[in-house]
Amino acid sequence: MSSKEREVREDIVRLSRSLYQRGFSVGSAGNISAAVDDGILITPTNSCLGFLDPERISKISHDGRHQSGDRASKEVFLHKAFYETRPGTGAVVHLHSTFATALSCLVDIDPDDCVPALTPYVVMRVGKVKLLDYVRPGDEKAGDLIRALGGKHAAVLLANHGPVVTGKDISSAVYAAEELEETAKLLVMLRGLPRRLLSDDNVAELRSVFGERYLRQRRVGSSRGE
After folding, report:
1. Ranges of each domain in the chain
2. 3-state SS class at 38
3. CB-based contacts of 158: which residues, under 8 Å, 6+ apart?
4. N or C: lower Cβ tally within 10 Å for the chain?
5. What CATH number should be reported for the domain whose range is 3-194?
6. What distances in angstroms separate CA 164 from CA 3, 7, 54, 97, 208, one per listed residue?
7. Which of 5, 20, 75, 179 is catalytic?
8. What is the pLDDT confidence band of residue 61, given thresholds at 50, 70 and 90?
9. Is 134 a catalytic residue?
10. pLDDT tens digits along 163-201
């Protein structure tokens, strides 16, 4: 095992524990993955994000074959779909966090933009979020729904299930997942109240200033663009 892979394993354990301790994940809910040069590291099936063992984190090849560690999460296809279709993806975080999941259960949200531009940080760190149709947990059809997006979204909400968020590395993916959850919390708290959203010009400015920086960062990395 390379020193870089060992470092990524430790990062997954540390950040997963932080998410669990702060209530972003409960029980054995949620799964996290990160790309390494020769495969993908992903939390094992039925594991608790608060009590991971770095040596037992599953490692699969880029085409999905198990290489080492415990058996991979049953929702590994969600992660593979993003790695396959969104260049620069270095990590994927799937949570059942309370407010993002609540948002995914509402019938009156825009499925093409289900997290409106309430704050600059959700625009900068998450982007436009697509709501995907409900499928049973563990059903590989969810991966097909992500592939159908053609890499256009860094984050999605699975209807009645929860968020799946990507980043260029494990830290940025976790931070984006946290930002999505906090924005969802604000949206739920503000339901029924007059809201002031960022204007189209505000959003365009943020994408101009910070979007290009993100794109430049995505070009730095391994030969796979991670």
Report:
1. 3-194
2. coil
3. 104, 132, 134, 135, 142, 164
4. N
5. 3.40.225.10
6. 28, 23, 22, 10, 25
7. 75
8. very high
9. no
10. 999 999 999 999 999 999 999 999 999 999 999 999 999
